Amino acid sequence: MECKLIGNLFEVIAMITDEQRIPQIYSESNLLYHAELNLIDTIYDHPHANARMLSEIMGVTQGAITQMTVKLTEKKLIEGYKMPGNKKEKYYRLTAEGKQARLKHQEYHSEANQKLCQYFCSLSDASAKVILDFFEKVKECMPISEFACQSGGSCGRAMERKEE
Domain HTH marR-type spans what residues (predicted)? Predict the structure, then answer.
């Protein structure tokens, strides 16, 4: 059972990593990476932010913002504009297609979150505590790496049972 738990943990971690690394379709014809979707959300949440402000908000370099804004502009998801009286700074806003991509992405996460919430609400307090304790233990052990039983070895509890 322990090896199955550990295997499932690493499978979930891999799925989360893949979800962030593999582009998804949230607009009519564009594959969007996780970072691009984050930038779309940030532009939506901060409509009068320039590249420097966006980089500070997102915790990435201005160069990364510039690269992503070029790609998102080419994909027609955002557009650059200048404020009256400030011809130097460039600001960004979502296009109609960018707003649609953001909405589809939010709907995707909302559906997944709703399923999880329904499951968690169905748990007894004791079961919920076990899961909460597990997550706390995983956070304590971060970063985690491959366990012995995942690489073909045997679990510690299985070894203890053999010794008894």
Answer: 25-128
Give the pTM.
0.71
Q: Domain 2-158 adopts which CATH fold? A: Arc Repressor Mutant, subunit A (1.10.10)
Domain boundaries defined on the chain? 2-158
DSSP for residue 60: S
Paired tokens of 110? 């909302």
Q: Which residue has the tokens 């915790």?
A: 59
Tell me whether the omega of the peptide bond preceding residue 143 falls within 30 degrees of 0, making it cis: yes
Identity of the residue numbered 131: I
Q: Sign of dihedral through CA atoms 101, 102, 107, 109?
A: positive
Structure tokens at 123: 């748990």
By the 8 A CB rule, do 55 and 38 touch? no
Q: Could you read off the pLDDT of 16-69 as tens digits, one per residue?
A: 888 878 888 887 778 899 899 999 999 999 988 999 999 999 999 999 999 999
CB 95 within 8 A of CB 54: no
**What's the rounded Cα separation, in Å, for the pair 105 and 82?**
28
Measured torsion, CA atoms of residues 87, 52, 32, 19, in degrees rounded to the nearest 10: -170
The single-letter DSSP state of residue 151 is G
